[in-house]
Specification:
single chain, alpha+beta, YaeB-like fold, six-stranded mixed sheet, globular
């Protein structure tokens, strides 16, 4: 699974256990484990989900989109899903085997958004 974090501040935050402890002292392990499980899983989101640690949040109705929300304990990750060629995967919650790349938009714990805190 390829993880991409286009927002530099968010990328810095997710790479730093010191910053994560400052933001979410009670949930830093959840966030770090979440990212690690996604990084280590190959080749698709279906493989990640088969482990049983991460779940997909069902999106609200509407037009199919590549947006997906995943949860691990207290952490919720929002991302855009793409296939191996980098093309968006519409309705990725229904096609996890097609998802090979996640472009992370945000992670929130207890309603506290990392993106908002990262500036």
């Amino acid at each position: 699974m390829i993880l991409v974090v286009p927002h530099a501040g968010l990328e810095e935050l997710l790479a730093s256990s010191v910053l994560l402890v400052q933001i979410w002292p009670g949930a830093v392990e959840d966030v770090m484990m979440f990212i690690q499980v996604l990084r280590m899983s190959c080749p698709s989101l279906a493989d990640v989900l088969s482990v049983g640690l991460i779940s997909v949040l069902t999106p609200a109705g509407g037009e199919p989109s590549p947006q997906i929300s995943l949860a691990y304990r207290s952490a919720v990750l929002s991302a855009a899903a793409a296939d191996q060629a980098g093309e968006p995967v519409a309705a990725p919650h229904l096609r996890p085997a097609d998802v090979r790349r996640l472009e992370i938009a945000d992670i929130a714990v207890g309603g506290r958004s990392a993106l908002r805190l990262a500036g």
